[in-house]
Write a structure and sequence with these properties.
The protein has a single domain, classed as 3-Layer(aba) Sandwich (Glutaredoxin). The strands form 3 sheets. The protein has a 5-stranded mixed sheet. The chain has a two-stranded antiparallel sheet with strand order 1-2. The protein has a two-stranded antiparallel ribbon with strand order 6-7. With 160 residues, the protein is an alpha/beta fold. The protein has 5 helices and 9 strands. The N and C termini lie far apart (38 Å).
Length: 160
Amino acid sequence: MSSEAIAVLKVGDSAPAFSFTNHEGKNLTLADLKGQRVVLYFYPKDDTPGCTKEACAFRDDLGKMQSLRACVIGVSADDARSHEKFTQKYQLTFPLIADTDTAISQAYGVWQEKNNYGKKYFGIVRSTFIIDENGTISHIFRRVKVDGHVEKVLAALAQP
């Protein structure tokens, strides 16, 4: 993948469509969520220290987000079985999308080349998008640091 192929979404853009199967086995699309806000967060890997801390922070503040008319959806390239184990282990109460073909990650521009100790590979760059009731991106958080992130998302949701 070349750097030109990376989607560069901006606040005000229409959110790229996606579909997923929720924990009840029901297929949902972004269009099905119209009328509520969506906190769509992308994370590198299930059950790793930073990703676990982030998922648990979203879980712990889910009620606050729901009171601000928002739902939370996590996305990684892990498969459904990995998500199921991760969800059960940490009692996560929001859906996780198994983006195994990375189509959603690529559409949101978060599937990028990474460099870890000189080893280059492609993976998800931790990012969060807030999508408004009409399917428009209202906030983007790129290259997220886990500590304090959920508080920033709540502050953005609280804005009129």
